[in-house]
Amino acid sequence: MALAFDEFGRPFIIIKEQEQKTRLRGVDAQKSNISTGKAVARILCTSLGPKGMDKMLQSPDGDVTSRLRIGDGTTGVVVMAGALLEQAEKLLERGIHPIRIAEGYEMASRIAVDHLECIVQKFEFGVTNIEPLIQMCMTTLSSKIVNRCKRSLAEIAVKPVLAVADLERKDVNLDLFKVEGKVGGNNQNVKFVLEDVGANLVICQWGFYDEANHLLMHRNLPAVRWVGGVELELIAIATGGRIVPRFQELTPEKLGKAGLVREKSFGTTKDRMIYIEHCANSRAVTIMVVGNKMMVEETKRSIHDALCVARNLIRNNYIVYDGGSAEISCSIAVEAAADKFPGVEQYAIRAFADALDAIPMALAENSGLQPIETLSAVKSHQIKENNPCRGIDCNNTGTNDTHEQNVFEALIGKQQQVLLATQVVKMILKIDDVISPSEY
Ligand code: ADP
């Protein structure tokens, strides 16, 4: 096997004939990819929803790397994609071409996304009324391992997001946020307090050459080297400084400003971290998580999800009721629309409607309810009352009205989930040649 490049510099792999162990073409290639996708979805299916089970990932060397609990809509996307693949398999069996399936799925996804806009509710909040946003983030955090501190984590996410949000333009730049983690806990501060004017701290992405090192030491100037590019940009934004390629290009107006820079070490580890505080421009935020390895990683992911929820609602403050109710409502709408398509796509559109049902069924099953019975009952309830809020009562609250249960999702989040699942499946369906070299 050799790596080569075409005339545009794009890499490709040349496999010698004798190395070629398996080659799957056409429907066989699609079926093989479909079964891989379905296997991933099957694993994640049982972790969907508030009663879903966590997954433990073990690396080949035996290290437990993380518990899989995604929580930003990703599990839902995978479950939906798995259901779309399962339906596609049946359509392939019936001789429908994968491209026609992909086209039908695309049409159905547009029907579902448009339908979501017909069942929205407005979500009111503001700078002086942040409680609804906090509540929304708390809902997201409920399904996480860190749910015991969901209130404080939700506040940690919402307050800085609102501080940097441009509510007029309905935008938040999440690049201004960095969620950092450190294993350990004890703090020992080594302080260097900044003076008022002149460069009294140098921060560099790379190392310093000898002459610079000598100069810095001679002037007694503290310096930090090997700082990541992203971090350097955030520091520049926060302090109002400019990144310069050479010392010679430094001028007073390019200097950034911060009130305090201190170094903190973490417990028994030798890790240290530089804190840059009281910056000129507080629009760059670093959220620092300290704890044991697994908790740090889980908390970082959870805060990231909460930040995304808050960002989505600032961009567009419409919500749809969830707990499977939005998918059921879309499934009804897509099913009804299928009849209007005269061609073969209508099979794929109906299949899409069936795939949408996979989410409420998984939620029901994970909550100990009978999936098919529960789905049929809720669906007929929705149709009878023309009420898109009927969903799955995962927490046994006594009502399947997700409005009353207060379970909802940002409209754009739900739309993205539907679109993403569709795109992933379309990509898989368009692969018709799988070559696996013998090394694998
Ligand atoms: P994801 O990674 O997709 O966000 P989660 O495990 O967080 O996965 O599950 C999200 C799903 O669980 C959504 O369909 C959401 O509507 C549903 N859900 C969350 N909380 C509740 C609840 N209290 N009652 C019913 N459904 C819920």
Automatic annotation (TrEMBL):
It comes from the Eukaryota. Belongs to the TCP-1 chaperonin family. PANTHER family: CHAPERONIN. InterPro entries: Chaperone_TCP-1, Cpn60/GroEL/TCP-1, GroEL-like_apical_dom_sf, GROEL-like_equatorial_sf, TCP-1-like_intermed_sf. This is T-complex protein 1 subunit epsilon. GO terms for molecular function: ATP binding. The keyword ATP-binding applies. Keywords: ATP-binding, Chaperone, Nucleotide-binding. Gene3D superfamilies: GroEL (3.50.7.10), GroEL-like equatorial domain (1.10.560.10), TCP-1-like chaperonin intermediate domain (3.30.260.10).
